[in-house]
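Researcher: I'd like a structural prediction for the single chain below. Treat it as a standalone chain; there are no partners to consider.
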Amino acid sequence: MSVRIVVADDHAIVREGLRALLDAVEEFELVGEVGTGREAVRAATALRPAVLIMDIHMPDGTGIDATREIVRLAPNIAVLMLTMFDDDDSVFAAMRAGARGYVLKGADPQQILQAIEAVATGHAILGPGVAKRALALLAAPRDAETAFPSLTPREREVLDLVAAGLSNGVIARQLGVTSHTIGNHISNILAKLQVATRSEAIVQARDAGLGRPT
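Model: Treating it as a single chain, here is the predicted structure.
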């Protein structure tokens, strides 16, 4: 029985390359190609592939958001992230969203095929370069700066206060700015952490040691 696969990537040339790669493997069957996150969710629920290959960058959001929705609606589908983004936040956000694998687009074609086979059979897999970074990150003590390198010092300060359970108004008074400014900071923080809600950001922040009494 063939492994049914859907490819979700906003670049036609990437989809064409994957189509050629998959067509050369008798056990793999490409059943759909889409170019946006919303289309990926629709294809997942309509076509029910065994594996959905997903890019992080999408024109209507992120592949991580789409992955989270696919895992919610069709948990039996294995999502394999295939992307150019190799930063720590992207890797861990994807795995938290439910992706079973994370491979970089620069990987050898055989490594990509092996990753597809692995997630299709229920295994989790990280590409070689990603795996080394993930292991190093897990082995090292984490503080707010290393956990969230994309945040500015002010954004880390705001996230710390959010994780402590303070409201926007209280944070604004404490930092001497307007609530509107705090709201903008929080919007930027959610985008950089690639989460949809304040609660998800708080979970990540507390995991990194923020929000604790000093």
